[in-house]
Amino acid sequence: MKNSGWTRLILGGLLTVIVLAGCSRDPNVRKVKLFNSGNQYFQNKQYREASIQFQNAIQIDPRYTDAHYQLAQTYIKMSRWSAAYDELNRTLDLNADNIKAHLDLGNLLLGAKELERAREQADLVIQKEPSNVDAHILSANIYAKLGNTTSALGEMHTAIELAPGQSRSYMNMAYIQAAAKQMADAEDNFKKAISLDPKSASPRLALAIFYGGEQHWPDAEAQIRQAIDLEPKNIEARAALCNLFLAQKEVPKAVDAAREATIALKDDSEGYRFLGDMYFNVGDYQNAAHEYESLRKDHPKDQRVTKNYIQLLLILNRFDEADKVNAALLKSNPKDAEGLIARGQILVEQKRGAEAIEPLQTALKSLPENAVGHYALGSALSQTNDATRAEAEWREAVRLNPNFIEAQIALARVAITKRDIKELNERAEIIIAARSNSADGYLLRSLGRSSKRDFAGAEADLKKAIEVAPKSSVVYLRMGQFQASQKQYGEAEKMFDQSLDLDPSSGDAISGLVEVLRLQNQQAKAQAKVEEIISKVPTSSTAYLLDAELLIAANQLDKGEAAFVKSADLNKSDPFALLTLAQVQEKRGNQDQAIATYQKAMQQNPKDFRAYFMLASLRGERSEWKEAEDLYRKALQIEPDSPLAANNLAFLLLEHGGDVDTALTMAQAAREKLPTQPNVADTLAWAYYNKGAYRNAIGLLEEATKSSPKQASYQYHLGLAYIKVEDKAHAKPHLERALQLDPKFEHADEVRKALAN
What we know:
Blueprint: H1 5-25, H2 27-43, H3 47-60, H4 65-77, H5 81-94, H6 99-111, H7 115-128, H8 133-145, H9 149-162, H10 167-179, H11 183-196, H12 202-213, H13 217-230, H14 235-247, H15 251-264, H16 269-272, H17 274-281, H18 285-298, H19 303-315, H20 319-332, H21 337-349, H22 353-366, H23 371-383, H24 387-400, H25 405-418, H26 421-434, H27 440-451, H28 455-468, H29 473-485, H30 489-502, H31 507-519, H32 523-536, H33 541-553, H34 557-570, H35 576-587, H36 591-604, H37 609-621, H38 625-638, H39 643-655, H40 660-673, H41 678-691, H42 694-707, H43 712-724, H44 728-741, H45 748-756
C-alpha cells in the first residue's frame, strides 16, 4: 500500500526526533556544544561562566585538550594562577606539541619568578621552532629578570629580525631598556612601535606609562588622549588617564575622567562601573556605594554590580542592607560562591563565626583562590577559638594576595600572641609600605620595637601614627599605654584623656586612665573621671565595672555591688563583672549570694568555663562535694584541656571515694601541663599513694614541700607516704611540721595518731 503524504510527514518528523535525540546523547556533540558555549562566554568576558562550561566539557571527555587549554586561558583572565598552571600542564600532558601552551606556561613561571623553569619552556619552543618570535621575547624577559640586559636585548634583536614589522617587539625592547635605565633608546623604540601600528592604542599607552614613570606628565597625558581618540571604547586607555591624574594626586580630575569613561562605555559592564570603581579606589566609599546603588537600578541583572555593591555596604558597616541584598542574590542562585562568601562575612561581623564556617568552606571549594573568602574563614575560625586553622586561612589569603592588608594585620596580631617579634616587624613593614598614611602599620611596629627595648623607635612610630591619624582615638590610647609602661604617668593621663575625648566609649582608654590615676594615688580623681564617663556614656559596662572596683576599694561595698550588677546587665555576653561581684560577696562572707551570682553568670553564658570552675571551688570549700564534682565535670566539658579543673576534680575524687584510676589519669594530665605547680604535684602524688605507688608519691611530695614548705597538707601527705615504706625516721619530722603549720587543719587528729604509734 502506498504511503500517504500525511504518513510521510509523520515518519519524517519521527526520524528527525530520533536523529536529534541521538545527537543529544552523543558525548562528542555535547562536549563541543559546551566548548563553544564556553568560548562565547569568554569572548563576552564572562570568565566565571566560561570556566564552568569548559569544566563541563572536560567532565564528558577528560582528554579534551582544547578545553583544558581554554580553561587555562580563562583562569589566567581570572588571575587564578595556580589553577591556570595545572590546566596548562594537563594540556601538555595530552599534547606535548602545543607550542602556545608551552609559551603560556613559560610566561606564568616568569611571573612567579621561577626563572629556570621558565627558561626550560622558552628553550624547548626555540628548539622546535627557532623562528618563533614569542619564544625569543620570553627568553629576553627571562634574561631581563636575571639582570642580564645584554642577552635580553640580544634576544629582542633576534625577535625583531625575525619579524621587523611587529610593533609589540619594539615595545618589549623598550620595556627592557627602560628597566636598564637606557631611557633615550627606550623612548625611541616606543615611538618606533607607534609608527609601525599608528592606529592602535597599545603602543601609545606604553609610551604614556614610560613618560609617567619619568614624571613627564603633559607628554603622558597627550599620548593617552591620542589613544582614547583612536579607540574611544578602550577601557585600558580610560583607566590610564585616571591613573595618571591619581599619580599627580589630582583626584577631582581622576573622578571627572572616570565619569567621562562611564558615559563613553555605557554599554559595557566594566565601563559603566568605572565611576563607582574610581570612588572605591580613592577611598570615597560613600559615593561609591551611592553610584553602585544607582547602577543596580539601571542594571538589575548585572551580578557583578550587585556583588560589588554588597562589598561596599560591608565596608560601610551597613550589614543589614548588605544581608538583604545578598539574600536576594542567594535566593536566585543558592550556590553562588561570591554570595556565600558575602554571607560568611556578614555572619562574622555579627559575631556568628560558627555559622559562617559552612558557607565559606562551600564557597572556597568553587573559588579556592579567593583571598577575601580565606580571610573571612580565618576570622570565623578565630571567633570559635580555632586559632591554628584561623592562622592557616589568613596565611593563605596573603599568599594569594600579598597586598591584602587586613589579612596582614590579622597575622601581625597572631605574631603578637606568639611573641614572634621578627614576623611582627615583617608584617608591620608590609602594612606601612602599602598604607603609609594609615596608623595600623606604625602601631604594630611600635609594639615590635618596644619588645626589643627600642623605646625611642617605638615612641617615634606612635608619634607618626598620631600624625597620620590625628582623629583616631586608638593612636592616643596606644601612646598612653606606652607612656604608662615607661612610668610617664602624667603624659599617659593626657593621652588617655585625648582618646576619651574622641571616643568616650573606649573601655581600654578609661581603664588605662583609671590605672595611671591609681598609680599616682589619685583615687578620688579616678572616681570622678569614671562618673564623668558614665554621664556621657550611660551604656558603658566598662565604666560601671571600674566604678564598682573603685567603690569597693573605698569600702563603699553596697554601692560597689550595685555597680557590678549594672555592668553585668549592660554586657551580658561577658560574665567578668558577675564573677568579680561573686568574689567580693565571698570575701564579705555572703556565700549564698555568691552562689546565686555564679549561677546567674552560668545562665547568661552557659559556655563560659570560669563560672563553673569558680563555683565548684566555692562548693568544695563548703564541703558540698557532689555539687563540686558535678561543676568540675561541666567545666571540663567546656574546656577539656583545663589542667586546673582536672587537678581539682582528681583531688576531690581521691578525698571522697571517687574512682582512683580516673583521678590518676586526670592528675597525670594536669601535671603534664603544669609541671612546676606544687599543688598539682601533690594531687598526682596522692593518686599514686592511693594506688600503692608510694615511692612515686614520695618524689613528687618532696618536690611540693620544697616549693611550698608552709603547706600543712603537703607535709602530711609526705609523712604518710614515708610511713607506708616503713621509714618512720623521715615520716616524723614532716608530720610534726604539719601540726606546727596548722594545728587545726582537717587531718590534724590523724597526724597525732600516726605520731603516737
